[in-house]
Design goal:
Blueprint (H helix, E strand, L loop, with lengths): L4 H20 L5 H27 L1
Helix pairs in contact: 1-2
């Protein structure tokens, strides 16, 4: 199953929003919030780079 660019952006924003809610609710520490936010962004950017690579073939 492959996601397109719009779906990647949607999933990234959804996860970032869910993480923000957990942080605001006190379920996630500030440090964990930063770490997970960066991890979500890195995975999204990596997947986007993969799609760009596949399109370039």
């Amino acid at each position: 199953m492959f996601l397109n660019e719009k779906e990647i952006v949607f999933v990234d924003q959804y996860l970032q929003h869910a993480l923000a809610i957990l942080y605001q609710g006190g379920f996630v520490s500030h440090e964990a919030h930063i770490l997970y936010s960066r991890m979500i962004s890195a995975v999204s950017e990596g997947y986007q780079a993969y799609l760009d690579y596949v399109k370039g073939r």
